[in-house]
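> example.struct
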């Protein structure tokens, strides 16, 4: 895979900056939120610099490469292309949203905001590392603060939810670790260590040498290694049936933490499929394409139906997140097939562009929804049942209007951000896997019913007497939410602002993948 190095270690700076902020926040007491806000804003500024500094041809740029432990095949290897840079932007935006939403933390605020920033550093490291050892450190680093944020500040059932989250994710990590240790041993010789570099492994896979090395050392183990890697990422996304940890974790976590879980951490699994699984195990994934598509369709449809059955707003949108990320999985598994001809290649490119854009769009929209739920909980003493409200648009018209925009974004209304990415996914998937695409449309239909039901029960109808004075958004809340709403319209009306940057990366990725 082609790379373009840089002289200034901007990716290292981006990864270290939240850790510095976290160290300050731990001892800042009541000023910890201010430290976290300043740090998050600085990280967003650096992420924007990374975005505008990408090579125009879609190759990996801003590369930092240093020897770390040569005897173990470990290098300090960083770099990003359009995919990685967009995830850095998403992580920076969602973290800033989370910190802004968490303005009422009174119990150990220094530790709370410090853990938020450590989690942000883990996200940045996961989206920039190009060596498995380095990448795995940050993959695991993000798990630890997330566990304690749920365990210490979550709801009444936070203990079991945090434990389930930790156990599921750790099991996936073990599967990843075993698979990559097998690759490391298989690519080594008596006189030279194996490699953990993603680029080197992808090049070996494309030439067929990797499968031969694994066969020489471990026999017919390559499909099992692919299953291990897929399982590790499937838990994180999550893919059904590995999703059962998610509703409890999202519901019990404090809403600002749920914003990070759904807005950024879930994208680590999709990113891993694109950056690691498909380049290295493309042939094996193509061989398992049909069962993987079945699981993706189940994720889409089941997620929507499960959301429709819920009464708790956080659980509704937890399952809705499963549904929306199922579209990403549908697009990924549909394009994992050898094709010939310009039309089929265009379908693959459309699906992959849609998947990458959907990762960004879902992250922004889902985080915004949970932000509004946090506002509702604060104003009502913690209530979030869909039947607890009614007619809120009368006492709080601005709140109802802005949350309505975000809900319509989740629904996929034309003119808002999610429509573009979902359209591209289905535009690409239909020619490649029309049966899976057709069945998945049920997910779109049920999602529309879910969103409209939420709007009907929360915002329309007669106002209960005890909500007659429900406070509308105050000035600072409107100012905080305005950029997020504006971003949804901007991406929905001018998607080329992102697509023109990620499309060269899409072309480059598809050119190097071997199915």
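> example.seq
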């Amino acid at each position: 895979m082609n790379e373009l190095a840089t002289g200034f270690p901007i990716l290292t700076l981006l990864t270290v900056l939240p850790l510095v902020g976290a160290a300050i926040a731990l001892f800042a007491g009541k000023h910890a939120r201010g430290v976290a806000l300043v740090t998050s804003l600085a990280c967003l500024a650096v992420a924007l610099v990374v975005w505008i500094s990408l090579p125009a041809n879609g190759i990996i740029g801003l590369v930092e490469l240093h020897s770390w432990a040569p005897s173990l095949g470990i290098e300090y290897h960083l770099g990003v292309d359009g995919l990685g840079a967009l995830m850095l932007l998403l992580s920076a935006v969602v973290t800033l949203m989370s910190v802004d939403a968490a303005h009422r933390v009174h119990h150990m605020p220094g530790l709370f905001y410090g853990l938020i920033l450590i989690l942000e550093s883990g996200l940045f490291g996961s989206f920039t590392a190009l060596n498995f050892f380095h990448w795995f450190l940050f993959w695991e680093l993000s798990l630890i603060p997330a566990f304690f944020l749920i365990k210490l500040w979550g709801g009444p059932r936070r203990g079991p939810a945090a434990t389930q989250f930790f156990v599921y994710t750790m099991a996936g990590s073990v599967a990843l670790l075993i698979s990559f240790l097998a690759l490391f041993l298989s690519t080594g010789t008596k006189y030279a260590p194996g490699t953990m570099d993603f680029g080197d492994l992808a090049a070996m896979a494309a030439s067929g040498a990797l499968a031969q090395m694994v066969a020489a050392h471990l026999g017919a183990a390559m499909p099992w290694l692919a299953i291990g890697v897929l399982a590790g990422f499937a838990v994180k996304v999550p893919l059904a049936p590995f999703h059962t940890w998610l509703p409890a974790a999202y519901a019990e976590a404090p809403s600002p933490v749920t914003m990070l879980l759904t807005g950024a951490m879930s994208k680590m699994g999709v990113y891993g499929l694109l950056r690691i699984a498909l380049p290295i195990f493309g042939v094996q994934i193509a061989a398992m394409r049909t069962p993987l598509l079945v699981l993706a369709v189940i994720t889409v449809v089941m997620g929507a139906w499960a959301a429709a059955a819920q009464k708790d707003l956080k659980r509704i949108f937890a399952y809705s997140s499963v549904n929306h990320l199922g579209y990403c999985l549908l697009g990924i598994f549909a394009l994992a097939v050898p094709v010939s001809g310009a039309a089929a290649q265009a379908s693959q490119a459309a699906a992959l562009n849609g998947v990458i854009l959907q990762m960004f769009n879902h992250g922004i929209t889902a985080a915004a929804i949970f932000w509004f739920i946090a506002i509702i909980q604060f104003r009502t003493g913690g209530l979030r049942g869909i039947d607890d409200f009614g007619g809120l648009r009368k006492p709080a018209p601005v709140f109802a209007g802005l949350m309505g925009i975000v809900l319509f974004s989740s629904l996929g209304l034309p003119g808002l951000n999610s429509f573009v990415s979902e359209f591209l996914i289905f535009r690409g998937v239909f020619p490649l896997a029309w049966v899976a695409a057709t069945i998945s449309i049920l997910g779109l239909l049920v999602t529309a019913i879910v969103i409209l039901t939420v709007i009907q029960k929360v915002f329309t109808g007669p106002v209960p007497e005890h909500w007659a004075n429900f406070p509308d958004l105050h000035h600072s809340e409107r100012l905080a939410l305005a950029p997020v709403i504006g971003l949804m319209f901007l991406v929905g009306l001018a998607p080329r602002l992102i697509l023109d940057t990620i499309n060269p990366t899409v072309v480059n990725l598809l050119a190097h993948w071997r199915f």
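> remarks
The longest strand covers residues 60-69.
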